[in-house]
Amino acid sequence: MRQTELNRQAGIEVPLICGAMYPCSNPELVAAVSAAGGIGIVQPISLTYVHGHEYREGLRYIRRLTSKPIGMNALIEQSSRVYRERMTRWVEVSLEEGVRFFVTSLGNPRWVVDRVSRAGGIVYHDVTERKWALKARDGGVHGLIAVNSRAGGHAGPKTPRELYDELHDLGLPLVCAGGIGEPAAFRAVLDMGYAGAQLGTRFIATTECNAADDYKRAIVEASEGDIVLTERLTGVPVAVINNAYVQQLGTKSGPVARWMLRHRRTKHWMRTIYALRSVRRLKKSLHAAEGGADYWQAGKSVSQIHGIEPAGQVVREFAAAIAD
Ligand SMILES: Cc1cc2nc3c(=O)[nH]c(=O)nc-3n(C[C@H](O)[C@H](O)[C@H](O)COP(=O)(O)O)c2cc1C
Prior knowledge:
Radius of gyration: 18 Å
Structural class: alpha/beta
Strand order of the largest sheet: 1-2-3-4-5-6-7-8
Shape: globular
Largest sheet: 8 strands, parallel, barrel
Order of helices and strands: HEHEHHEHEHEHEHEHEHHEEHHHH
Strand content: 5-15%
Distance between the termini: 6 Å
Bound molecules: flavin mononucleotide
Helix content: 40-55%
């Protein structure tokens, strides 16, 4: 099998990451991807608030399911002191429990890099364009996750090719995130020069993910044109399936929210209000009542996803595509 810098740094067999997903990263999914040779990333708010584990106990539960490496996602936007303290604590507990691979998103990753490097760990940072990549490089990260315009969650503005071309001279391994739902697409990005891929949507349509069956089926049935960006969830565009629920609510923020987001002094409050609201809203959406539509986050890779499979089987099929 093809080996890349990501394999070496993360200590894994297949250069494939199951990206952090709020609210979809349940511990069984994270463990299944790692057990099969990829690496599952823990989303701490999912683990604690959605799936009901105390953080350390949740990590130990995953460790009982697999002894292979797992990763942790640190969202490091400076929103509040309480949140920053909690994230610092989660990083510490992760290190104590043996986690050595970290994915940071938003903000400046330097404090995570400093702490994790001292413990011999690795930090990759999510970026959507070169200016954030330069900041992350200056912060000392070991690799970059290039989030493109096809991604689930908060997508970026650029295609996988554009991002590769504008980031590959930085001397850091690049992981492609967005739009990869089938083995051939995985192989294609590795052929382009990426050191690996981070997938989200593909891993929701698995037996281990405990999202509602209607949500998983909607992913299998959706095509690319069914993915729209809504601002109503977090104030910035998030990719969701354009179901009856989304159509009913529309995809634009209301006028008050828009006004608050435009102004420097009120922007911060509005972001906090959105963050709290969306955390509650999305927790509910994970288990929407059978037959009812809700906010179902998914990226354009839906067009390549044709069935609900065990996560380990997905990893093995992807691995087979790069067995040169
Ligand atoms: C439901 C959902 C929730 C996500 N939540 C997070 C998150 O909490 N933190 C994060 O860094 N990325 C998050 N992402 C992004 C994924 O980690 C990954 O980069 C992305 O899904 C890749 O695109 P794909 O869905 O086309 O495979 C989320 C994606 C989805 C689909």
